[in-house]
């Protein structure tokens, strides 16, 4: 059900945070629904048949069915739990990226646009471009809600249980207009040269996905020093297409095991150690840092898991839900060596972030509905034009501000529109602080009042 929004033809008000006057105001209530988790997103048929989804190689499927961390090489006995060939990470300079299909942005995906027109939708987006906006909406909704570290040792119970600055930083997207459809692309240009360093880990992640799903002989065909292009490697990646409201969403499907619950699909994530992530521009200097312990405050899988909660679980959670996935398989490395693996089901991420799987479903549905409302308001600023949008939730998390400007402008300077978005959460009709509303019990109804 679409949220009911009421335009309020009141006198323009002066923002308390700005000397500019508001010239438009809308508000409405997004009601709780009885939708099942499976019906939050509706599957839509692809334009063309999808290729098969990859399977794990090297016996890594054992990780899926045994909770906890799996060392690649046991530190006490030096015994290899998996093939020793996996331990050394290939150099990205040796990988033939031209032998695989590169990532296709939403605006360059003709199939995605065709599906949107067929389904009568106004927006398209991939998980990479959507999760940033959904995360900003969640920050506004949850208002500094802390996360749960119950399974971790006492050291981490005493740490600040809040998202990292990187998780909270503003995000920029471009809504590219064509043929009546707005395609959502991530916009990294606003953050400057530092993004080039982060791309090193993204590039390595693409390579390591193939590394973990291809037997050794098949993977070697993707190295520059080996055989020429193998045509079958250029096939399209498998996707899930789904819709909610005015959005058609695309999720790349990394891997599948039919023995897992539901679709059996899961994401593959490659996670560099903390010093690498914190010093991307000089990551080569920090490759001596190794994971040496299962538990402990430093050089441990437990430390890396704690950092995952703070900086990545929210993104992983939204991505898994958009793809109707069971969870994520994480490979921990320092760009030279893989240390181990851990499978994290979606319900575990829900428990850490929201308190329960039911709360996770509720948050996801509300964030999608709010994304619909905000996106439709964004495009009224400069109708039928491509626009660049910067989303920023204030540090106090009581206001989400979106700056909108046209990608192209005839004048010497581009006009900029500013949207200020406030949210009030209600549980069973009672207004509550975001942290309490998000983690409300399963049988309580959550409504959101939005004011733009």
TrEMBL record:
GO term, biological process aspect, one: mitochondrial RNA 5'-end processing
InterPro entries associated with the record: Pet127
One Gene Ontology cellular component: mitochondrial envelope
Coiled coil: none
Protein name per UniProt: Pet127-domain-containing protein
């Amino acid at each position: 059900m679409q949220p009911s929004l009421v335009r309020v033809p009141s006198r323009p008000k002066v923002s308390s945070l700005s000397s500019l006057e508001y010239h438009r105001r809308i508000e409405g209530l997004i009601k709780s629904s009885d939708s099942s988790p499976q019906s939050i997103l509706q599957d839509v048929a692809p334009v063309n048949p999808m290729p098969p989804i990859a399977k794990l190689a090297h016996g890594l499927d054992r990780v899926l069915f045994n909770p906890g961390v799996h060392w690649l090489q046991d530190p006490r006995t030096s015994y290899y739990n998996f093939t020793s060939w996996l331990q050394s990470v290939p150099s990205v300079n040796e990988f033939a990226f031209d032998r695989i299909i590169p990532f296709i942005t939403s605006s360059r995906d003709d199939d995605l646009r065709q599906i949107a027109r067929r389904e009568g939708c106004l927006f398209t987006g991939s998980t990479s471009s959507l999760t940033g906006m959904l995360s900003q909406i969640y920050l506004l909704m949850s208002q500094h809600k802390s996360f749960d570290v119950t399974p971790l040792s006492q050291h981490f119970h005493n740490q600040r249980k809040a998202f990292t600055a990187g998780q909270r930083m503003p995000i920029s997207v471009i809504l590219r207009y064509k043929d009546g459809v707005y395609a959502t692309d991530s916009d990294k240009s606003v953050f400057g040269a530092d993004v080039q360093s982060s791309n090193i880990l993204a590039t390595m992640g693409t390579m390591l996905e193939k590394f973990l799903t291809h037997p050794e002989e098949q993977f070697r065909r993707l190295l520059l020093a080996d055989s020429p292009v193998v045509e079958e490697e250029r096939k399209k990646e498998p996707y899930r297409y789904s819709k909610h409201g005015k959005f058609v969403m695309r999720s790349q499907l990394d891997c599948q095991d039919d023995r897992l619950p539901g679709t059996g699909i899961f994401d593959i994530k490659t996670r560099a150690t903390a010093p690498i992530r914190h010093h991307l521009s000089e990551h080569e200097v920090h490759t001596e840092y190794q994971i040496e312990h299962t538990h402990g405050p430093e050089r441990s899988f437990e430390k890396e898991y704690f950092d995952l909660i703070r900086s990545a679980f929210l993104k992983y959670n939204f991505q898994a839900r958009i793809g109707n996935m069971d969870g994520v398989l994480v490979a921990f490395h320092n760009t030279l060596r893989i240390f181990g693996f851990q499978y994290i089901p979606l319900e575990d991420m829900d428990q850490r972030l929201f308190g329960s799987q039911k709360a996770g479903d509720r948050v996801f549905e509300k964030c999608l509905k709010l994304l619909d409302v905000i996106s439709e308001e964004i495009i009224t600023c400069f109708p039928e034009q491509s626009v660049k949008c910067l989303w920023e939730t204030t540090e106090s998390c009581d206001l989400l501000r979106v700056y909108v400007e046209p990608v192209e402008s005839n004048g010497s300077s581009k006009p900029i529109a500013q949207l200020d978005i406030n949210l009030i959460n209600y549980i069973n009709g009672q207004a509550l602080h975001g942290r309490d509303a998000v983690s409300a019990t399963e049988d309580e109804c959550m409504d959101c009042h939005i004011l733009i």
